[in-house]
Amino acid sequence: MIVHLITRLVHGGAQLNTILTAEHQARQGQAVVLAAGPETGPEGSLWDMARAAPFRTVPLRHLVRDPHPFRDLLALAEIVALLRRTRPRLVHTHTSKAGLLGRVAARLLGVPAIVHTPHGHVFHSYFSRWKTAAFVQMERLLARMSHRLIALTESERDEHLALGVGSDRQFHVIPSGVDIQRYAVAHSRARRAELGLPQQAFLVGCVARLVPVKGVLDLMRAAQELVPMVPDFHMAIAGEGPQRGEIERFLGEQDLRSRVTLLGECHDVPTLLSTLDVLAVPSHNEGMGRVAVEGMAAGLPIVATRVGGLQDLVQNGQTGLLVPPHDPPALAGALARLRNDPQEARRMGQQAAQRASLFSLEHMLESLDRLYAGLGVAPGSP
Q1: How far is residue 299 CA from its own chain's centroid?
Q2: What are the φ/ψ torsions at residue 133 (nearest 5 degrees)?
Q3: What average pLDDT score do residues 245-249 get?
Q4: C-alpha torsion 29→35→39→45, nearest 10
Q5: Nearest alpha-carbon partner for 379 in 17, 83, 24, 20
Q6: pTM of whole model > 0.85?
Q7: 113-117 and 90-94 beta bridge pairing
Q8: Among 31, 44, 172, 217, who pairs with 11 as Cys (CB 3.0-4.6 Å)?
Q9: pLDDT reported for residue 11
């Protein structure tokens, strides 16, 4: 029995990664449970996808993302009860809150193997200095309760180790897997009409939750800079989140509504990517940046910030351009460079498509199989 625990099943790379992992293990003959808190949000929910998969789902009524001492204790009790009922050989926790409560519960009950995937970290760009310091101390302690820790990129692993979280022996680097063929869709400007996007524009896309850490407002400020530099540009922003109102107000104040389309929650990312000229990933912090791999698979040059795993994915000058975070002028300059040199943009897109295969779903699942086997949980074992 394998139990996966994750805080929320909203639309996001961590959540999709977890569902695909659990589905693969169930199809191999493992008994698998996926448990998560009930919270969704403007990003949209993946609960229907999880319930349709061939594993058991368990909602944890009291597991919430934000700190809540009383509900956190109740959630810990829920998880302890779940593990007592299921008696798993391995517990795999995902994201911070589920990683905290799940690892404590698994350690209390003596689960033989405990694996944690943070799917990034909250060591900067999320909280105040004192709260961040508390998270670092907590993660140092929790790492001692873990048999294996999974980082999505070398940079994510190195950032943890530099802060004394875990040991090199514990960490395995396994990138979040992407179904490469799903995103390798032929480019077509004709599809822009279906999305209400201008057919002849230099089209910059961004697929992200509308929250500060994703840097979408930086991209809007870059749009201001682009107006005189690239007269024919347009931006398409796919995603939802609590920052939407602030972004809409900014677009209105800066007279950018005709330049930027907010698409909301996007259910067909491959089609959107097939219409773009470049994909922007302006994050302030990113464990890996799964959407960058999706864009690479679609043959797009990527303009991304030099943070976290993005600097491992995007080879500066080869598969895209890296710029400093929090720097709208640099974002604008990189986008203008690609607009003004279509041959360079095409070359980067072609190299990006070749590199994307390194981050395939198959590679992720095979790597996880090997890691689990090393902990005594082989594919198809009872």
Answers
A1: 19
A2: -60, -40
A3: 96
A4: 0
A5: 24
A6: no
A7: parallel
A8: 44
A9: 82
